[in-house]
Amino acid sequence: MIDSKLFYHQAVALAAAGEDLYQRGWVPATSGNFSCRLDADSAIVTASGKHKGRLSPTDFIAVDLNAQPISSGKPSAETALHTQLYARFPEIGAVLHCHSPAATVLSMAMAGKSLLKLSDYELLKAFTGIDTHATSVTIPIFANTQEIDSLAAKADSYLAEHPNCPGYLIRGHGVYCWGSDLDTCLRKLEALDFLLQCELEQLRLSR
Ligand SMILES: [Zn+2]
């Protein structure tokens, strides 16, 4: 039984987040997808092909953690990447996926590398469990594919080994980030994208 009040509340919050992320240029041309957990076994996710800066509460679909719809409509093609995270981490409440220029370009500029190490940045403290800049956080980069189930399986096996990983990149595609609730997820995404922009700038300066 879907909690329709919670569904509506989450949908309104995700639509507002979408407006903000669209203004930043991180979800151009209907790209990206967003979700929030409903309960232990379900989440709401953006419907396929919607403009992410102009979402309404009817643009969301409830899905189970096998990425199958449990309300009417067609969920995002990348739903399985969201539900993999909810299934892997019972404590997370929101997942955001964006196609920001920094995530897209940096993952391509790092061709042949499957890990991005972020070290010594003050903003690393935005990630859960980190209280000093004198540390490093590793972000995996997965190859892009249209085989979403196989990508979800790859992400799942990496995250099983690295449960504190705050997000991942898909090469030439974008970034996935998650958090205990939507505000936490937005804060982590903002920090992660800032750090990606810094890495990109450093790469430019070193060439
Ligand atoms: Zn995408």
Can you tell me about this structure?
The protein contains 5 helices and 8 strands. The longest helix has 24 residues, at 182-205. The chain has one domain (4-205): Class II aldolase/adducin N-terminal domain (L-fuculose-1-phosphate Aldolase, 3-Layer(aba) Sandwich), CATH 3.40.225.10. 37% of the residues lie in helices and 21% in strands. The N and C termini lie far apart (56 Å). Helix 3 crosses helix 5 (182-205). It has 207 residues and is of the alpha+beta class. It has helices at 4-23, 79-88, 101-109, 148-161, 182-205; strands spanning 33-39, 42-46, 60-64, 94-98, 115-119, 136-142, 167-170, 174-179. The structure holds zinc ion. Zinc ion (ZN) is lined by residues 31, 78, 97, 99, 173-174. Zinc ion is lined by residues 31, 78, 97, 99, 173-174. Its EC number is 4.2.1.109.
CATH superfamily assignment? Class II aldolase/adducin N-terminal domain
The low-confidence runs, each spanning 5 or more residues with pLDDT under 50, are none
Q: What hetero molecules are in the model? A: zinc ion
User: What's the gyration radius in Å?
Assistant: 16 Å
The assigned structural class equals alpha+beta
- Which CATH architecture? 3-Layer(aba) Sandwich
Percent of residues in beta strands: 15-25%
Instruction: Quickly name the level 1 CATH class.
Output: Alpha Beta
Contiguous helical run count: 5
Indicate how many domains the architecture comprises.
Answer: 1
What sequence of helices (H) and strands (E) makes up the elements?
HEEEHEHEEHEEH
Spatial separation of the terminal alpha carbons: 56 Å
- Principal-axis shape equals globular
- Spatial order of the strands in the main sheet? 3-2-1-4-8-7-6-5
Number of strands: 8
Average pLDDT figure? 95
What composes the largest sheet? Answer: 8 strands, mixed
The proportion of residues forming helix, as a percent range, comes to: 25-40%
CATH topology: L-fuculose-1-phosphate Aldolase
